[in-house]
Amino acid sequence: MRTCILYIAHSLDGFIAGPDGDLSWLPPPRKEEDYGYHEFIAEVDTVLMGRVTYDFVLQHPPYHYPGTTGFVWSRARAGERDDNVTFTAENPVALVSRLQTEPGRSIWVVGGTAVIHPLMQADLIDEYWLFVVPVVLGHGVPLWPARGRPLRLRPRDVLAYPDGLVRLRYFGGSR
Amino acid sequence: MRTCILYIAHSLDGFIAGPDGDLSWLPPPRKEEDYGYHEFIAEVDTVLMGRVTYDFVLQHPPYHYPGTTGFVWSRARAGERDDNVTFTAENPVALVSRLQTEPGRSIWVVGGTAVIHPLMQADLIDEYWLFVVPVVLGHGVPLWPARGRPLRLRPRDVLAYPDGLVRLRYFGGSR
User: Fold this and answer.
1) Does a cis peptide bond (omega within 30 degrees of 0) precede residue A111?
2) In whole angstroms, what separates CA A75 from the centre of its chain?
3) pLDDT digits (tens, 9 = 90+) for A100-147
4) Distance set, CA A116 to CA A5, A62, A92, A105, A144 (Å)
5) Fewer C-beta within 10 Å: chain A N or C terminus?
6) Are B26 and B128 in contact (CB under 8 A)?
C-alpha cells in the first residue's frame, strides 16, 4: 500500500511556524546538506496540502514539487486545476484513504495543520520524518493537535546533522 | 561555575505529564537500561523542585534523591526543613543564580513547570537532557512555556535507546 509521509521541520517546542507563519527560524538551505530531501522526494509521486500552505508555496517560486501529482484541499476552489495541482473539497482522511487504494508511490503530507491533524487523528500517517530545530519559539503554529486522542508511534531511527538539526523517524501506529 | 541541568522526559508533543499529572505513559523502569541516570546523578549534589513535584516524590517512596541537598520552592512552608529538603520562598531564578556562585557540583532542576519555566526564560538552564517518548499525548502539562521569549539552544548530542526513547542534549543559550 502507498505510504503516507509527514516530512516536516518543527521547533523544540513543537511549532511548524512562528506567529504569522514566520519561517525565518528554519536553517537556511545549504548546498552541502539536503537533509535527505532528494532521497525522500524520489519516492514521492503525490503531494497533499492545505490552501494556505499552497498560497505560501506559490509566493516562493519556483514550484517546490515539480513532477508530482498535487492535491490542495479547498472548498472554495474545489474542482479547479492549475499548472501544479487539483483543488479538492474531499477531506484529507477520505482523500488519503482513497489514494492508498490506488497504485502509486508515496504521498507527502506537506501541511498545514488543517490537513495534518485529521490525518494524524485517523492514524493515516504511516511515516513521520520530523526535523527538530534547536530553537524554542514560544508560540506559533503547533504541529500536534491540541486535545487530540493519544497516539503511540513506533520508532524507526534517529539522525543528527552537523548543524544541530535532528531527524526523528517514526512509523504511525496503524502499521 | 556549577551547571544547572534539566533532565526530564517528555512526549513527542512536549508534555511532561498527562492530564491530572498522569505519568503512566512513561516507559517502566528496566534493570538493563537506566538512560544514563547513574552517570548523571553522580555529578549532581543539589536538586530543586516545586512543591507539587515534591509531594509527588513523597508519595512514591523511597526518596529518589538521597545524599543530595534539596530545595523545594514553597511560599507556604518557607524556612522549614524535613529529612530531605529545605523549603524556600526564594524564587528559582534568584536561588539558582545564588547557588551558582557557591562551590559545588551540578544542580538538577527536577520540575515542575513553575520552577522550569522561569529558569528557561532567564536562560539559567545550562544543559537540557530531554528524553523524547514516542507517544503523542494530546494534552497535559507542557514542558515549554507558552508565549515565552524565543530561545536558541546549542546542540550537544543525540542518543537513541533500543526501546525507542531518544535523548536530545543541548546547551543553554547563555553558555
Assistant:
1) no
2) 20
3) 999 999 999 999 999 999 999 999 999 999 999 999 999 999 999 988
4) 10, 24, 8, 19, 8
5) N
6) no
Cβ pair B135:A149 closer than 8 A = no
CB contacts of B166 in chain A (<8 Å) are 155, 158, 166, 168
Give the three cell numbers for residue B8: 526530564
Surface-to-core class of residue B117, CB atoms within 10 Å of its CB (0-12 exposed, 13-18 middle, 19+ buried): middle
> What is the DSSP-derived secondary structure letter of residue A77?
T
* Full-model pTM: 0.94
Query: In this structure, are residues A109 and A48 in contact, taking their beta carbons and an 8 Å threshold?
Result: yes
Cα–Cα distances in Å, from A77 out to A50, A112, A175, B71? 12, 17, 34, 60
Q: Are the Cβ atoms of A136 and B155 closer than 8 angstroms?
A: no
Query: A70-101 as b/e, with b when 16 or more CB fall inside 10 Å?
Result: bbbbbeebeeeeeebbebbeebbeebbeebee
For A103, counting Cβ atoms within 10 Å of its Cβ (0-12 exposed, 13-18 middle, 19+ buried), the class is exposed
CB B93 within 8 A of CB B124: yes
- AA identity, residue B167: R
Reading phi first (left if > 0) and then psi (alpha if -120 to 50, else beta), residue A113 is in alpha
> How many Å apart are CA A7 and CA A40, to the nearest integer?
9
ipTM of the complex: 0.93
Q: Please indicate if any CB of chain A lies within 8 Å of the CB of B20.
A: no
d(CA B165, CA A74): 38
**DSSP-derived secondary structure for B76-110:** TTTT-B-SSEEEE-S-HHHHHHHHTTSS-SEEEEE
